[in-house]
Write a structure and sequence with these properties.
By secondary structure, the protein is of the alpha/beta class. Helix content is 39%, strand content 10%. It is globular and about 65 Å long. The protein starts with 7 loop residues before the first helix and ends in a 13-residue tail after the last strand. The mean pLDDT is 96.
């Protein structure tokens, strides 16, 4: 199932008055709480749909990966899920990705000022009278520059996420984490960082991947696997998902030129493999599939990862998996 959550300032706005009215003195993690509520719903209802509340997997790509990490980090989600997959969204475990409550509240004060609500006797009432369009516009203004991030509020996110993971206080569940071949910062930094943190402090296994497959037309150009490209393969939506407007837009990040990509049997096979592996992990917590691939768990010392392409191959050194896009100048 796919769930919705509040985004942008609607989902992650802090303000001193919001914190003051909260019984836990926190504000800013409303989107994170939405996701936790969805997991509560799964626990209460999934059996009626034939599901198992004791075998729940959460996963997401890009911002969805960030949201998956937020659920691994918040103590409020204890026992609500049992496996996690982070696709091209591992940067939240970096020490640089920290927004403290005080700083988030200061940004909220700026947004209230941009809305013209800061001089009101009841600033929250004035802000709540504003349309969501006005709130989004105020957040995007040059004087505010709001950027959504989970907030270290002492309650929903009690400490910086990097600290929670380094101390082993994240939820101890099997984890798949990885990125696509053309995503330099992720492969060279945040994927190995998250993998090192989780594998060093959790008893559950950590599995790391690099997705390198590119559809036939783009292989022939050539270009490299760009941000988001793994999604049609993981969901088994090849070929229909490949030529979507989103994929065409993102393809420039891999140095791709054609806006009419075609696929072949190799792409269909990779999609079958990827979706099978993801489903196997969701069922068992181990993505290995007999007769297909024995996926070795990652450790900081072995640095083993699975390359997902025309061949499924175990390799060593995820930080060296980056493939630069072609220079077309």
């Amino acid at each position: 199932m796919t769930v919705n959550s509040r985004l942008g300032p609607i989902g992650y706005l802090s303000h001193p008055a919001l914190s003051a009215e909260d019984e836990n003195g926190s504000s800013g993690n409303y989107g994170t709480l939405d996701l936790k509520a969805s997991l509560d719903w799964v626990q209460a209802n999934i059996e009626a749909f034939g599901g198992d509340p004791d075998n729940v997997t959460i996963f997401g790509e890009s911002g969805g990966g960030t949201k998956t990490i937020s659920q691994m980090a918040t103590p409020l989600a204890e026992g609500l899920f049992h496996k996690a997959i982070v696709q091209s969204g591992s940067a939240l475990t970096s020490p640089e990705r920290i927004t403290m409550l005080e700083d988030a509240e200061a940004k909220g004060v700026q947004l209230a000022q941009a809305l013209g609500a800061s001089g009101s006797d009841d600033v929250l009432a004035a802000m709540r009278e504003a349309s969501w369009q006005d709130i989004i516009a105020a957040g995007a203004s040059d004087e505010v520059g709001f950027r959504a991030n989970v907030v270290v509020d002492g309650y929903v996110i009690p400490d910086p996420v990097s600290q929670i993971f380094s101390e082993g206080r994240q939820h101890d569940v099997p984890l798949i984490v990885g990125a696509n071949a053309g995503e330099q910062g992720l492969l060279e930094y945040s994927v190995p960082q998250m993998a090192n943190l989780h594998s060093s402090t959790a008893s559950s296994a950590t599995y790391v991947y690099n997705f390198s497959q590119v559809p036939k037309t783009w292989r022939d150009e050539p270009c490299v696997a760009f941000h988001g490209l793994e999604l049609p393969y993981v969901f088994g939506s090849v070929p229909t998902g490949i030529d979507s407007p989103t994929m065409i837009f993102l393809s420039g990040g891999g140095g791709c030129d054609s806006n009419m990509p075609e696929t072949d049997e190799v792409d269909m096979t990779v999609a079958d493999h990827a979706s099978t592996i993801w489903a196997q992990f969701a069922k068992t917590g181990d993505p290995s599939v007999e007769g297909l691939i024995e996926w070795e768990p990652y450790t900081k010392s072995n640095n083993r990862y699975l390359d997902i392409g025309a061949m499924l191959e175990m390799s060593t050194g995820i930080q060296d998996a980056y493939t630069p896009p072609p220079n077309r100048e």
